[in-house]
Amino acid sequence: MKQIDGGVTAASGFLAAGAAAGIKYHDKTRKDMALVYSKVPAKVAGTFTTNVVKAAPVKRDIHIIKTEETIQAVVINSGIANTCTSKEGELLNEEMAGYTAKQLNLPIEKVLTASTGVIGCQLPIDRVKLGIEKLVPLLEDTKEAGKMAAESIITTDTYKKECAVELEIEGKRVVIGGMAKGSGMIHPNMATMISIVTTDCNISKEMLQKAASADIEDSFHMISVDRDTSTNDTFLLLANGMAENSYIDEEGTAFKAFCEGLRLVTKTLAKLMAQDGEGATKLLEVEVVHAGTKEEAKVLAKSVITSNLVKTAVFGSDANWGRILCALGYAGIEFNPETIELYIQGDGKSLKLYENGMATGYSEKEATEILSANKVHVMADMKMGKEKATAWGCDLSYDYVKINGDYRS
User: Fold this and answer.
1) Buried-most residue among 117, 186, 232, 249 (CB within 10 A)?
2) Is 100 annotated for ligand binding?
3) Residues with Cβ < 8 Å from 109, sequence gap 6 or more?
4) Residue 266 near residue 215 (C-beta atoms within 8 A)
5) What is the pTM of this model?
6) What is the CB-side half-sphere exposure of residue 151 using CA atoms within 13 A?
7) What is the pLDDT of residue 277?
8) Which residues form the active site (predicted)?
9) Residues 269, 360 share a domain
10) Strand 349-355 and strand 358-359: pairing?
């Protein structure tokens, strides 16, 4: 298995496009609609926000995935979330799907939708339709087309997020590629994200859903920017079978290989989202090792990345290890603070901050240099067992408040 250049168009038979439809109220020239299309029907799986408040496209997609074996297209808009828009919003979402289906000569139930942006605004359906009319002729299977789609779904993101891998399954080349958006309102239980992952793997819908549901536990569920879980979180996984590998309909070597490839794609996308947190200057990676159970390791790691005091200390390059220890302590997991060890790593350097219940006598200057890296790694050795987990977040800067203070203005 190896990572390759590309995104949603990397796998055989998938086309994509991005265009400006004028939906974003503050910038009518910015690309704000994307379309992903499979030449042949693709098996579909998905996971969605756990927020009780769900966007119109989320509710429709959940229904479609439960009732349809395959789909062929996903149309996405950014700028308006189509959340808390009542029956009118649901009808407009249906119209968005229907118009896309008409342009592609597909049944409406073969088109999924996704929206991201401001909550409470109705979709400007005339602009949406014009956007769809622009998108369909632009559909291509090139890297550039995939890039355009990835750029078109972002909101406060500062860059596109793509990843693709190729692997061999029983002698056949299989490709998995994806794109994602997400920068704020990111918290475990999905995140504020739209992620579309495509693959040419020949796999059953049941196994595809099994892979998707298991995968997010170590990828999209392990990131946080601001402790807010969005209303529009959508992860869609499409498989069109064009790699022509032997049909995967049960667990085994082939399924394991597919899951490993999927994990590389989603973990990469997850880390890109954490690193691009609104106003962020650093990626914060927290690894918990030698925990008693896998779940305990996850809880402890996520407790540290979600601590505002830890995040601000990382922003200021301040080795305030007491904040890390405190975040571990209120996670709800029993441990002995006298035996654990804390380390920080960055730019190839490592430093132990805490052991035997007290500071190690480390150099504050050296600690500041390590914490000034673009990627800061914190490791907590719990001395309790053999399990481990890693979570990803970011620092908390002044710009986070600026961005969210005038998000609608």
Assistant:
1) 186
2) no
3) 64, 67, 68, 71
4) yes
5) 0.85
6) 14
7) 67
8) 192 (nucleophile)
9) no
10) antiparallel
pLDDT at residue 325 above 90? yes
Residue 184, domain CATH: 3.60.70.12
Do both 97 and 6 map to the same domain?
yes
- The domain tally of the chain equals 2
192 has catalytic annotation: yes
Terminal CA-CA length for the chain: 45
Does 155 count as an annotated binding residue?
Answer: yes
Q: Which two tokens stand for residue 400?
A: 């986070």
Same domain for 210 and 333, yes or no, is no
Confidence of residue 281 (pLDDT cuts 50, 70, 90): confident
- Cα torsion through 212, 214, 216, 217, rounded to 10: 170
Residue of 49, 192, 198, 306 with catalytic role = 192
pLDDT score recorded for residue 187: 47
Give the type of residue at 286.
Answer: V
Range of the domain at 56: 2-275
What distance in Å separates the CA atoms of residue 306 and residue 281, rounded to the nearest whole number?
Answer: 16
Q: Is 409 marked as a binding-site residue?
A: yes
